Amino acid sequence: MPREEEYRSAIRELERPGLCELWRQIEARQTPDWEPGKAFEYLVLRAFELENADVQYAFRVTQGDQTVEEVDGVIYAAGLSAVVECKDSQDPTTVEPIAKLRNQLLRRPSPAIGIVFARCGFSGPAYFLAQFLWPQTILLWEGEEFADAMRDGHLVDSLRRRYRYAVERGLSDYDPKAEE
Predict the structure, then answer these.
(1) How many domains does the chain have?
(2) Whole-prediction pTM value?
(3) Which of 32, 46, 163, 176 counts the highest number of beta carbons within 10 A?
């Protein structure tokens, strides 16, 4: 896993302005030093880390010599423990990453939640599926919503609001613009 160590070192050198620049590069599909999708994955975790969240960068869960899971990361913030799945595709994210994350959550303590970060949003079926996963809570977080909260330094607060919305309304697709 030497490449993962290189990614961690590189991302930890970046503060908020560097992350905003990396976001612009990700949107322009100009991240030659990163494997596909990795820049977004590490950006998300580093942005939370800058807001004093504890994060665990990408890791594999193994049993013996077999890989059981590949986890994009974990965020510990606002009293929550969230397993993270990041999707950096040019199309809306489909149901598969949501279903994968649901299965990962089934193997974890019940208070753990999931968050799918999708740079280009989600398909209609993905939104629909996410509403029927309870008791596994999976929050959906679109790229532009993430970028806005990152730029403003409000990711942890936004996470708190998203979780509260899910508890109160039973919905996983919080829209921060609806509060405005």
Answers:
(1) 1
(2) 0.94
(3) 46
